[in-house]
Task: structure prediction
Amino acid sequence: MISRFLLTLFLSAAIPALAVDDYKLGPLSQENPAAPKGKVIPMPVHESKIYAGTKRDWWIYVPAQYKLEQPANLMVFQDGHDYVGVKGAWRVPVVFDNLIASGDMPPTIAIFINPGHSGEVKPQSAWKNNNRGKEYNTLGDVYARFLLEEIIPQVQKDYKLTENPEGWAIAGASSGAICAFTVAWERPDKFRKVFSTIGSYVDLAGGHVYPSIIRLTERKPLRVYLQDGSSDLDNPYGNWPLANQQMAKALAYQQYDYTFTLGDGAHNSKQGASLFPEAMKWLWRK
Result:
């Protein structure tokens, strides 16, 4: 009789191990010669008044289909440096080119904005901008006011944006994700769509209260896409996968228009970027 140990060893050798966190970009994240190309425009370094003493880099994307007589939709990406490239993890301009060309998204202008840094010397890594935690993890309407009073008006000087809040979306990963949710939560009169990946809905600055607040607050007119991985962070501030599941359950309880994808990934953009095109189709569906 084969021992249990030998049987286990045999089955382990016979069945290939499942890859963990092995997400790949699909065809909609690859450049398509047939899709009209939008343009990415580096904007002048922004010096904030609301976040006094901080500076930041930012960019905008304008789709090829933009027409002055037809106001465009808007989507704002936190940690913009991670989303703006056409060869990076997210490749937002490429995905937008493809989805706008196919009609799966309306013509949409994107803002890619970094958190602020203080002092004259820019940090070597954009992830280490020293105002990031304050801007992104803090609850309340300050960051929303920063976007609405300082950043978006600069775009509106040259481009027409729809005034319909259903046409305004906001996105981010990790602390950028809870930041995006906070903006829409505080200002649903402006932003109605949220794309959140590996969101930090933990106690970095009180964000762990969101599931309770959502349950106790009359439903707001938001559409929310949540993603996380089962191997995400677990540290003294909280458990990221559990926090995202609690968010999803709270949204379900209040009958929000939401979806939640839980994979096996860690605290990175692999799964989020792989599902980004389909998430955009879902987020922008009519």
